[in-house]
Amino acid sequence: MSTLMQSIEECLPAVNQRLEELVPLHDGLTATIHEAMAYSLHSGGKRLRPMLCIFTAQLLGRLPSYVLDIACAIEMIHTYSLIHDDLPALDNDELRRGRPTNHCVYGEAMAILAGDALLNQAFQTLCRVELPAEILLEVIQVIADAAGTTGMIGGQVVDIQSEGKHIEMDTLRFMHEHKTGALLRSCLTSAAIACEATTEERNLLDCYGYNIGLAFQIADDILDIEGDEETLGKPVGSDAQNRKSTWPALVGMANARKTMESLVDEAIQCLDAFEPSPARQTLVELARYTIERKQ
Q: What's the alpha-carbon Rg for the chain, to the nearest Å?
């Protein structure tokens, strides 16, 4: 078993258990919204974003529990974005991780509210993290920037406005850096801040996060063309159907792969300054996983 898969197996139960504690089912008048939140949040997966937080903490000599709630908060933000992405007003997808999307089960109105509630719960969770106020404020600021118009939402806006248009490479890069890359990058940066990393360590981890974030989105573009629907758990070809701008569409499949591989090489180089350790090896393997994955 690879170091990455072993690390995920060790950390995943704690992440899933904590997410269930933070977003439990409820009885009474608000039962449905909590059920809708849990439906998408507890739908499985390798929890890439929480793992990035935890592996960063381990690289810096901290226990996973030190950043567990930060990791879970970012996963809530990611899940809210998926619920809203799948809505008819955006990507209009009916399948996610092999199951009907949230709005197909609970209706559009409840899906919108479930996404809103997860975003709110994420920041409630962050506000309760036991860190010195100055450090916690910086953690929250980094994550808020990554989730808002300076990050994920900004990238989503450019994605919507670019549908059916020929766009320049700078625009495509901006879209990918922000829509997918910003939140991934914040996993490393927020964990580094919480662990009181040095400026050099933070810069190196930010470099790693930038490169794997962009590589991850290019890989997503490729999987939407070449992936297997059963393995992906969602339809393939939706980018072309929705006339979206993608890396393969703009530069061709061969150049897209070349760029993706170069980004991963750069990400791994960012880790060279850290002492050899299982955590560093895990992050090296995770960088490669972002472009070798089948889903």
A: 18
For 24, 49, 80, 191, 230, the CA distances from 33, given in Å and listed in that order, are 11, 24, 13, 30, 29
User: Which strand (E) or helix (H) includes residue 263?
Assistant: helix 253-269
| Rounded Cα–Cα distance for residues 43 and 75 (Å) | 12
CATH number, residue 54: 1.10.600.10
Instruction: Name the pTM for this structure.
Output: 0.93
Burial class (CB in 10 A: 0-12, 13-18, 19+), 44: exposed
Report which residue type is found at 286: L
pLDDT digits (tens, 9 = 90+) for 173-193: 999 999 999 999 999 999 999
Tally of domains within the chain: 1
How many Å apart are CA 216 and CA 187, to the nearest integer? 14
Place of tokens 């439906």: 39
pLDDT tens, 35-63? 999 999 998 878 999 999 999 999 999 98
Q: Whose CA is closest to 36, among 132, 98, 108?
A: 108
